[in-house]
Amino acid sequence: MSELIRVPDIGTGEGEVIELFVKVGDRIEAEQSLLTLESDKASMEIPAPKAGVIKSLAVKLGDRLKEGDDLLELEVDGEPVAVSETTDSNPEIVAASTPVPAVSAGAAASIASVAEVAAENIIEDIHVPDIGSSGKARVIELLVAVGDQVTEEQSLLTLESDKASMEIPSPVSGEVVEVLVRLDAEVGTGDLIFKVKVAQAASSQVVAAAPVAPTVSAAPVAAAPKPSPAVSVAPETAPTPDQRKKTAAVHAGPAVRKLAREFGVDLSLVSGSGPNQRVMKEDVHAYVQSVLSKQTHAAVEQGSGIAPIPAVDFARFGEIEEVAMTRLQQVGAMNLHRSWLNVPHVTQFESADITELEAFRVGQKAVAEKAGVKLTILPFLLKACAHLLQEMPDFNSSLAPSGKALIRKKYVHLGFAVDTPEGLLVPVIRDVNQKSLLQLAAEAAELADKARNKKLTAEQMQGACFTISSLGHIGGTGFTPIVNAPEVAILGVSRATMQPVWNGEDFAPRLILPLSLSYDHRVINGAAAAHFTRRLSELLAEIRSLLL
After folding, report:
1. Active site residue: 127, 285, 345, 521, which one?
2. Residues 423-482: pLDDT tens digits?
3. Which residue from 1, 83, 160, 321 could staple onto 165, CB 3.0 to 4.6 Å apart?
4. Residues 347 and 198 in one domain
5. Where does 392-488 have alpha helices with state H?
6. 467 belongs to a structural domain
7. Domain region containing 241
């Protein structure tokens, strides 16, 4: 049966659709995220209440939604489950319905007098409000510090859970006297996070609003539970009060603030292009690009690089077309340029006779097919390189930031370049030295498929010790790959060809594989590089030697 799904209670009034995770025809599960809504104070993912197939969507990017608005029509799986409405006992409702005993004029005057005296020194405990049923959330931003003056509804900190990020506002105005949380701490509904010395007006209202006891008892007042000790942010890592105030005053949603933190951008320096000068994600990206451009020009002016290529108006010579590079191509170009400028490159060339290896590979075709994999030459290259990285540990190292030591790795993770329509990606296979040829073949095929379908995670492209870039499926007799810093070497592999090789009596046809090893000359000297390529050639020529 079909069911109309509406926006649940989002607690923020209205929000803008900034991400859509589903489309018509998708099958979804209960609690699967449908879209992301963003308001001035929070961004949250709206989950599906039931499983089913989406028949139609009633929203699009940029729409502003509130509780009860139509989201989508869902073909629900199975019979809908009736939800019975139950009314839990609510202490506030009970309290509201209970008559408050009358208070004598003398007692009221006495209480009012006490309130006036205590107004100057009342300390309000600020707790985490109801943040929903997600349990805990992480503190990702502290917007105030001890000594700061805050106003009612001013944001104190930003929390982030798996489904939402939200700013917690102050319920009172006053001075922050104690911070009871730290960055990255996990907090939940009701946790004590701040102590604020409230201003006179606010404190008078708090005292006046407190319920009045019918009689004054001589019994001592029960002591309140002691809060956990305050944890202060280290001064060297915390922003200054002025920076916090400026950043907090910027009109930007949590998603934008999170992006700014990832880039290390001070939001008070970014010009907003949204309504009421609201800072958008595009504004942060534009600011980062501007800063990088300025840094590049400054580096040239300081003599750390060659002068930039002068701009040319190519349209003077004929018709042109400007095609934007993909984001992946831009990032790849920047990384390659950085590696080329920072690493003194040298390339060592070698040829490997893989005639016997190829015969073995073809002979194992049936075994590989039975295992559900295609056995290419890549697993053999991975296995041989992993063996050499352990035999020659300088190739499995990185130059320390000081430039005075090597960081040798005890693990063997290898990256391999995959050409995709969007640009070059380098997934990483971990612990290559501990895996069989068939395991490597299966994992390489799976990662390559993810790369071409944009499903690689950031973690699957990190941690490589050494990279293999193969162009054998395209052609060529050799090339000079660029070292993928902070690695110190990269192996380029070209197309294998049949060539006549003199065996002492006559020329015999042999399958020859061209190898190109580019390396960081600060770490690897020429003799070590030549030894590496020669040993690699020997291992590939007699692959069984890996068993010794």
Report:
1. 521
2. 889 999 999 999 999 999 999 999 999 999 989 998 999 999 999 999 988 888 999 999
3. 160
4. no
5. 437-452
6. yes
7. 112-209+228-249
